[in-house]
Amino acid sequence: MNGGIREYARYRGVSHTAVRKAIASQRIKLREDGTIDFERANGEWKRNTAAPPLAAIPEAKPVHARRRVQALVESEGESLSEARTRRERAEADLAELKARRAAGEVIEAEQARKTFAQIGRIYAAGREGMPKQLAPKLIGLTDLTEIEAILRSELRAADARISDEIESRHGELLQAEGAADGNGLGSL
Q1: What is the pLDDT of residue 86?
Q2: What does the radius of gyration of the chain's CA atoms come to, in whole angstroms?
Q3: Residue 53 has pLDDT above 90, yes or no
Q4: pLDDT above 50: residue 125
Q5: β partners of residue 37
Q6: Strand, helix or coil at 3?
Q7: pTM for the complete prediction?
Q8: What pLDDT does 76 receive?
Q9: How far apart are CA 89 and CA 113, in angstroms?
Q10: Among 156, 138, 134, 136, which residue's Cα sits nearest to residue 147?
Q11: Phi/psi at 184 (5° precision)
């Protein structure tokens, strides 16, 4: 049977690049018309391709997966039992965190940041109206002690109102943030 490089590669079950390399290294020879005699080329390929020396072929030893894992772990300076203990502790910590999150005892840091930003906006809005409320009370006053007492009193009252507002909206804020995050967490 005769054919070109690609046909011989298919016949032999190798890539056409392998056949081209065999031709270039003169392990097989082309016929005068540029085709390949498949039978002759098979014999040439076999005769002219040196087998790797036995020392170059590593001895195949069956290695169990557990031994491979143990060797890998120990190469990192930890025994297999220490690695398992560490993994089990991590899994237990994760399970505890999930349980605490489900009970509403823990929230995500990003959720807390958003909630505190909302609380800050409530606080700022509560303080924003203070000058309008204080101006009429301070008109005509000249005694600094009296002005200071009025300012302190009004600031305390405003802080108390803002605190009450934050407390009443605290649960709503967390539930809104939890619903937006999809985790439904409910307390700080």
Answers
A1: 84
A2: 41
A3: no
A4: yes
A5: 2
A6: strand
A7: 0.37
A8: 63
A9: 29
A10: 138
A11: 60, 30
